[in-house]
């Protein structure tokens, strides 16, 4: 979790002048498990096929490795996308910024959140990530599910305390 003003500069451009960010988190690295699996699986397949087809000629083997390099480039793209995706909670709203070339910023005011829960799969409990499910008073929602969030219990408690402040906080 990123406290105070240590969020990346790319996030500050989406904040209003009168709001300040409270929490900024990048999605859990577990979001990269599938791309990692594809790249490693592709490497194994490319290695096995290279050994089997080595006698037939170098052209087939080079195509196999070019295909794996394309898969590796896709993996690098996924890592680059992950590095710029953030879930931001300000004093007034929640933002989900995604995309490397086409930047998408989904926003939901904290005052519109009527229900929020988080879910953790077995893998999520082992690796330390969870998923938020948000419900709002309006029918159209910019985002409903935010997956692969690190520290889901801490985030859940922090957001709930902001959405439903205690009566003692209101008196201050």
UniProtKB/TrEMBL annotation:
KW Transmembrane (keyword) present: yes
Keywords, alphabetical: Membrane, Transmembrane, Transmembrane helix
Organism: Actinoallomurus vinaceus
Regions crossing the membrane: 30-54, 60-77
InterPro entries given in the database record: YdbS-like_PH (IPR005182)
Occurrences of domain YdbS-like PH (ranges): 87-143
Database matches in PANTHER family: BLL0215 PROTEIN (PTHR37938:SF1)
Pfam families documented for this protein: bPH_2
Name listed for the protein in its UniProt record: PH domain-containing protein
């Amino acid at each position: 979790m990123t406290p105070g003003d240590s969020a990346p500069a790319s996030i500050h451009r989406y904040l209003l002048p009168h709001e300040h960010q409270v929490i900024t988190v990048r999605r859990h690295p577990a979001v990269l498990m599938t791309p990692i699996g594809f790249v490693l699986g592709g490497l194994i397949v490319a290695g096995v096929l290279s050994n089997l087809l080595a006698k037939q000629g170098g052209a087939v083997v080079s195509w196999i490795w070019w295909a794996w390099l394309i898969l590796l480039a896709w993996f690098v793209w996924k890592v680059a996308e992950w590095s710029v995706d953030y879930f931001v909670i300000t004093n007034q709203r929640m933002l989900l910024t995604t995309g490397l070339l086409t930047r998408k910023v989904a926003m939901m005011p904290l005052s519109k959140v009527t229900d929020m829960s988080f879910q953790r799969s077995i893998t999520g409990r082992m690796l330390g990530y969870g998923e938020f499910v948000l419900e709002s008073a309006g029918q159209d929602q910019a985002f409903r599910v935010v997956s692969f969030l690190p520290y889901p219990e801490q985030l859940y408690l922090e957001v709930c305390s902001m959405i439903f402040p205690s009566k003692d906080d209101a008196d201050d």
